[in-house]
Structures are given as C-alpha cells and as structure tokens.
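A.,

Following up on our hallway conversation. Structure tokens first:
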C-alpha cells in the first residue's frame, strides 16, 4: 500500500485536496477495521502460532473474539492519539514554510521512519512486559501523568524541537531555501538550481553557490522531515504504553500501530484546515490517557467487577469520550469562529 501510495497515486507532487484526503482516509480506516476480521480468524485458528501463548498483560490466551476486541481497542486508541500529532505537524509545516505540494512527501517518509522506530520500541516493550510484569504499573503511572499534563497544559510546547533545529542547522550543511521536492542536493547539480515550486523562477541560493562543487547539502524539507520524525518519537512515548495497557501481544500491538499511522497522512490533510474548530479534542485525548492509565493500574479489580466483557467496555468508553469531544467542539466553537459565522 505504501508503494502504491507514493509510486502510483502520488508519483507527482501536488496539493492534496480535502476530497482526496477524505477518500484516502476512508480507505485507510476501512482497511484498519477490516484487518480485525483477519485477526479474528487467525487467532481463532491459531494461524502462524498466534493465540497459542498467554497474553503477558492479562495472562489469558487470546481467542479470535478477545484478540479482535483488543486489536480494535488498540487501533482506536492509537488513531485518536495520532490526532494530537496532527496539531504538531501542522505547526512544523507552518514554521518551516513547507509548500503544500510537498507536505505529502514529507509525511510519507515520516511514516516509513515511524514504522521502523515504533517496531523497535514495541519489540523492546513486549520483551519488558513479558519478563517484568510490574513494568505495566510504571506505564500506568506514566499515562496518568501524561493525561494530567495534557489536560492542564494550554499549549504543547516544542522546546525540544527548537533545540533540534538549532543543533542541526549549526552542524550540518544546509541550503537557504527549498529545491523542489529534494531532501538533499549536490552543489552544482541541476537539482541545486531547481525552483522551490514548479513554474516559479529559481532564487539564488548563496549557501549552494558558495559550497564546493559536488558537496552534499540538506534542504529545509529534510530538516522538516527530521523534526516530524522527532515529534513522532515523542508521541510514541505516550501511545505505546497506552496500547500495552490493553495487550502485550506484540503482533496486535504492532499491527494496530501500523494501521493507525498509515492513515495519518490523509487524516492530516483532512483535518489540517479544521484544527481550530475541534477545541475539545485535546481534552478528550487527555481523558482517554487517564482512563487507560487507570485501567492498567487497577486491571485486576476492574476485571473482577466487569467480567469477561472488560475490554469491550473499555473500547466503548474510549469511543464515547472521543465522540463527546467532537460533539462539544461542534456545539461550542471558539468565540472568534462563532462571531465570524454570525457576522456572515
């Protein structure tokens, strides 16, 4: 799907329309939900050895039904937490002035990097949970802290990213402006003279002109990609412990992460222009983190009270909280937006 995405559907850089983003968002969400059917039959039939060992989190061998519920819960949690990432990516693109036609390219390679990095983090996390069950309490406490921080912090600061930008700008050779869709250019090559946007006149880049012939230089597009990758690592620190609160099965954890991340690009282009309208989404995400953190700490007590439908109830509560955040945002829009609508 990634190969088709960049090699066929986005072979040529272009501005992604809301309609195109809506279609692709629907495709990715349908694929993510449909994969739960594979999960059900794979664990029910114990294909490839799935569902043959106890889940490190609850000690229960996952059947097709329990595995599908855990996958869907994990998918919804990861998908919802990725919305917060969209806010930050929009800020990154704005601060770097990334042309809209190249934003998909940055997000594509950002997703590829995220899959690799999260794979490593999930592998390490699964090994830790399987060997040291008490680490789940650490995850739970961290999620409670992250939820409270998100709930009472008005604006998520990007001090770490500002430091990263200053560090990279100081120690790696950079061009002054964009050179088409290139992340790196070689001084004296045709790419180094390519205009930032097709159809515009090329602007003289003093950093390129003063560089030695054939020297490799990084463009601001590469710097934006690095910062996007860094931001995903920061968000993974929140989201990966959240899904380990649901299951320790590495296959379910990784696949739910994959499908949530794969749809991040299209979801970004769908929601980027409406971010300010969803003022209560971050509060809803904070309550989701608090709920999952509470669940992981008091899992045994909750499982005794709620019984075998424990994970299904958790999924329902998460969907209810997210829906409440969306409805509240639509009913009580920001004052400026409300006033402008009344004036129109």
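Then the amino acids I'd put at each of the 344 positions:
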């Amino acid at each position: 799907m990634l190969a088709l995405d960049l090699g066929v559907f986005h072979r040529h850089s272009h501005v992604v329309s809301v309609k195109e983003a809506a279609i692709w968002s629907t495709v990715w969400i349908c694929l993510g939900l449909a994969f739960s059917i594979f999960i059900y039959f794979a664990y029910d039939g114990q294909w490839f050895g799935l569902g043959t060992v106890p889940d490190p989190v609850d000690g229960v061998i996952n059947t097709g039904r329990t595995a599908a519920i855990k996958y869907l819960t994990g998918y919804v949690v990861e998908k919802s937490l990725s919305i917060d990432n969209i806010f930050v990516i929009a800020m990154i693109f704005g601060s770097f002035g990334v042309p809209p036609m190249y934003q998909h390219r940055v997000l594509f390679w950002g997703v590829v990097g995220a899959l690799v990095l999260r794979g490593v983090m999930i592998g390490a996390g699964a090994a830790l949970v399987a060997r040291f069950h008490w680490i789940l309490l650490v995850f739970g406490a961290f999620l409670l802290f992250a939820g409270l921080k998100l709930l009472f912090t008005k604006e998520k600061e990007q001090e770490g990213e500002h430091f990263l930008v200053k560090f990279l700008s100081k120690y790696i050779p950079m061009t002054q402006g964009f050179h088409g869709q290139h992340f790196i250019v070689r001084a004296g090559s045709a790419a180094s003279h390519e205009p930032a946007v097709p159809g515009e006149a090329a602007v003289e880049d003093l950093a390129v002109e003063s560089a030695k012939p054939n020297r490799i230089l990084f463009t601001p597009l590469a710097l934006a990609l690095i910062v996007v990758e860094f931001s995903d690592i920061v968000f993974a620190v929140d989201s990966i412990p959240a899904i380990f609160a649901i299951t320790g099965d590495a296959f379910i954890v990784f696949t739910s992460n994959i499908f949530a991340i794969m749809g991040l690009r299209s979801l970004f282009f769908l929601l980027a222009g409406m971010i300010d309208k969803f003022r209560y989404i971050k509060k809803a995400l904070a309550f989701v983190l608090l709920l999952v953190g509470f669940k992981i700490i008091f899992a045994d007590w909750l499982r005794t009270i709620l019984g075998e439908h424990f994970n299904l109830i958790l999924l329902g509560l998460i969907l209810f909280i997210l829906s409440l955040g969306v409805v509240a945002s639509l009913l009580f829009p920001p004052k400026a937006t409300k006033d402008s609508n009344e004036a129109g």
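Residues 12-153+238-343 form one domain. Curious whether your intuition agrees with the design.

B.
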